[in-house]
Write a structure and sequence with these properties.
303 residues; alpha+beta; ten-stranded antiparallel beta sheet; two-stranded antiparallel sheet
Length: 303
C-alpha cells in the first residue's frame, strides 16, 4: 500500500501557561503576525481566526486555567504551502507549552470501502496492536453510511475516545465529495490521533513521519526501511526547559534558507536599483540597533 504523499500533521493543539487570565500570552500575537501573509480574518467570537485559502481555522483563547491554541488541518495545509511551518515551530518552541493533541495522517490511493470492510473483519478475529496498545473489537467504533456510488462506507475508530492514541481510518474520497469538493479518486486516509500522554513535540508536527509509522505500522501499513524509530520527547511547562539542539547560528541559517520573508526581501532587493542588497543590510542593521524604522510616504501625483 503506497502512500500518495508523506504523512502530514492534520491537527495541532497546544496549551500555554496564562498567569493573568485577562491578558493573552505573547504567543498569540506572535503567531498571528507570522500567519498574516497567509491571509487571516478575525471571527466574531473573538477567539478564532480564518487562516489561508482552504477554510482553515486558528483558535486561541483561555481554556480553564491555561491558554489553548489549535490549528485545523486546513490551516496547517496553508502554513505548509506558505513555507512557514519551520518558523512556526521555532516560534512555538520558544514558549513553554504542552502539545495536547496532534493528528498525523497519510492518504493512500486505494479503494476505501473494501479495505475498511476487511479491516473490520480482521479485528473481529484478531486484536490489533497500535503502538504497544491492544485494540479489540470492543474498542472499535464503527460508523456506516453510503457514498454516491451506492457502496457502504465505514469510518472505523480504533481505540476508545478516552485513549491516548486513537486511529481513524476512513474514506477520504467520500468525505470530499460529500462536502462538495472535486472527486479525488480512490483515497483512504489513516489518521493517528495523539493526546498529551504520548508526549509529542512541535517537531513531530513539522515532520510527523516517524510518529505516524510508530503507531500505524505494522498493523495497518508497512514500515518503510528509511524511517527511523520514534521516541517520545515532549515536555510540558511543569518540567524543565529542554535543551535545544539548534545553536543560534543554526537557527539563523535555517531561517535564511527557508523563510519566505527572506525570499521576498531578496526579490525586492533585485528590483531596488538604487541600493539592492546593500539596502537590505542597512535596514537590518538599523533594526538590530533598535532604531525606529519609518515607511517613507509616496508623493501624490499632480494631475
Amino acid at each position: 500500500m503506497t502512500p500518495i504523499a508523506e504523512p502530514f500533521c492534520d491537527n495541532l493543539r497546544l496549551t500555554f501557561p496564562q498567569p493573568d487570565r485577562d491578558v493573552a500570552p505573547p504567543v498569540r500575537d506572535e503567531l498571528l503576525s507570522l500567519l498574516f501573509p497567509l491571509g487571516i480574518a478575525a471571527r466574531a467570537d473573538g477567539k478564532s481566526w480564518d487562516v489561508g485559502p482552504y477554510g482553515g481555522v486558528l483558535f486561541a483563547a483561555r481554556s480553564f486555567s491555561v491558554f489553548s491554541v489549535q490549528l485545523s488541518g486546513s490551516a496547517l495545509r496553508a502554513v505548509r504551502e506558505g513555507d512557514l511551518m519551520l518558523e512556526m515551530c521555532f516560534l512555538l518552541e520558544r514558549h513553554s507549552h504542552t502539545v495536547t493533541r496532534l493528528d498525523a495522517s497519510c492518504d493512500y490511493a486505494i479503494a476505501a470501502p473494501p479495505f475498511l470492510f476487511q479491516l473490520y473483519r480482521r479485528i473481529r478475529r484478531t486484536p490489533l496492536a497500535i503502538g504497544g496498545k491492544v485494540v479489540t473489537i470492543r474498542d472499535v467504533e464503527r460508523q456506516t453510511s453510503y457514498n454516491t456510488f451506492g457502496e457502504a462506507v465505514e469510518n472505523l475508530y480504533l481505540g476508545k475516545k478516552s485513549a491516548e492514541v486513537r486511529v481513524l481510518v476512513y474514506d477520504k474520497r467520500h468525505e470530499r465529495i460529500e462536502k462538495g469538493g472535486d472527486d479525488p479518486g480512490d483515497c483512504l486516509r489513516i489518521e493517528v490521533r495523539l493526546k498529551s500522554q504520548v508526549r509529542c513535540t512541535v517537531w513531530d508536527a513539522f515532520a510527523p513521519e516517524r510518529v505516524y509509522y510508530h503507531y500505524a505500522a505494522p498493523s495497518l501499513v508497512e514500515l518503510p526501511a528509511s524511517v527511523r524509530s520514534w521516541e517520545p520527547n515532549g515536555q510540558g511547562f511543569v518540567l524543565q526547559e529542554k535543551q535545544n539542539d539548534f545553536t543560534p547560528y543554526a537557527r539563523m541559517l535555517l531561517l535564511v534558507k527557508e523563510s519566505p520573508v527572506i525570499g521576498q526581501l531578496l526579490r525586492l532587493a533585485r528590483q531596488d536599483t538604487s541600493g539592492g542588497l546593500e539596502s537590505v543590510f542597512k535596514l537590518i542593521q538599523r533594526r538590530f540597533d533598535g532604531e525606529a524604522l519609518q515607511i517613507p510616504s509616496v508623493p501624490a501625483l499632480v494631475g
